[in-house]
Amino acid sequence: MNPCPVWEQKSGRVYLFFICVRGHVTERQQIVSGRNAARLCFICSQDAGYSWSEVRDLTEEVIGPEVEHWATFAVGPGHGIQLQSGRLIIPAYAYYIPYRFFCFRLPYKARPHSLMIYSDDLGATWHHGRLIKPMVTVECEVAEVTGKAGHAVLYCSARTPNRCRAEALSTDHGECFQKPALSQQLCEPPHGCQGSVVSFRSLEIPDGCQHPAGKDAPTIQQSHLLDSSLRLEPEARTLSESWLLYSHPTSKNRRVDLGIYLNQSPLEAACWSRPWILHCGPCGYSDLAALEKEGLFGCLFECGTKRECEQIAFRLFTDREVLSHVQGDSTSPGRNSAPTQN
Q1: Which residue windows are transmembrane per the record (predicted)?
Q2: pLDDT for 282-291, tens place per residue?
């Protein structure tokens, strides 16, 4: 369940993380009882997915005794990333039980929080970072953002039940994150939905084109995502060598109309563009991939034509399409917007 791959560039190895659940116990049953039945597992491939290793269980190595405080947990779903430092990151979340009463767990107190699982030795050993608190956050994805001054920051976008997406930043490669903030520009349907985010090198905007967020150029916002205590130089906060692309349903009421959002100033608050609607109608989970050298993006997503998501589709589009659509009419699909069906 919950597949989450990451590619290690130096060795060419692909790690596919997932969870196995003993006895077909549902997530809800684990949360209610406070008894975890999930196991953290992965397989790897050294030939681009043609063959795979045996399953390896990492639960004891990564979580250890702390699993007693996790009613359940999961990775992804979506993709992991490799940072410029070489660190491999797998996004995850856990339902944490903070209190005990006379040695008895109080499972109804379990609250979900996102966190990262990481490796600094090309996948030989794995560890987990701190829970992102205090806000309730669930499925998440991360992207590395580099500012003009060369500062690398890890951006996290997480699902919430609060009708808005949660955003958080880390300056220590994902071991801990600042207090998350709700984005008023990125809505969530009731109970939320998984979303995807990728970073890529900034593009040159043709003269006379408007900034996708509706401005002529990025400006300093009154509210920064970055905590002022980090003491980054102003240019590191306001200018970025990396942009972000984000996919998610655009309706506050239900999972419909999959949108693509662009952010040219990821280290600032309120800099997301209006969405380009990639698919009209029912939609759900999605996952983005960036092919920077080719100027291409891919989006794999759940979609449908009636009331349900009865198919999985794939759409390939260019970076110039993104700029064109978010600068123009972002409320309707563009030309050739029909997805490739799988």
Answers
A1: none
A2: 999 999 999 9
